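Task: sequence design from structure.
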């Protein structure tokens, strides 16, 4: 299936918009108050990796320097059951810049730093459309699911609550 095909783009445009809107909101501002500004628990690089390894994906880690203002950083590639490949980065702390990822740089950074203690970047959406490694509708669905699961895992660890949309 060609990603540029309009039959593919029309059903996924709402998902792209939802993904972009989700990044505009902070993480963990639940009714319990765990996510109020200044209250997230900043997690370590080791804990971040351990949490992500609890998800059903295969990981390859890559070395990355801490972005400006970050207390730590994690970067790597996650592979899902449909062969879906996502390059991602996590900047830890409440003041960190995003970790650049291949193809996308920091274009799709979801900034949960103030409410959740991290910034998450991925390369699902890249300049010009969808990442070249996402070839099928199943991979598109899985890529979005993977990104949400990874973010939710980190939000729950840092705030005790889910990442709101």
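Answer:
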């Amino acid at each position: 299936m060609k990603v540029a095909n309009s039959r593919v783009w029309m059903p996924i445009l709402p998902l792209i918009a939802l993904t972009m809107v989700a990044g505009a909101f902070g993480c963990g501002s639940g009714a319990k108050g765990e996510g109020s500004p200044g209250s997230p628990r900043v997690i370590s690089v080791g804990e971040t990796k351990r949490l992500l390894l609890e998800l059903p994906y295969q990981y390859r880690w890559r070395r990355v320097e801490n972005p400006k203002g970050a207390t730590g950083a994690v970067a790597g590639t996650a592979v899902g059951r449909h062969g879906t490949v996502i390059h991602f980065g996590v900047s830890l702390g409440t003041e960190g810049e995003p970790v650049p990822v291949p193809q996308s740089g920091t274009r799709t950074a979801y900034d949960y730093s103030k409410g959740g203690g991290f910034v998450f970047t991925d390369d699902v959406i890249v300049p010009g459309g969808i990442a070249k490694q996402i070839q099928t509708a199943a991979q598109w669905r899985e890529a979005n699911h993977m990104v949400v699961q990874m973010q939710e895992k980190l939000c729950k660890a840092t705030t005790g609550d889910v990442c709101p949309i």
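The first strand starts at residue 58 and ends at 62.
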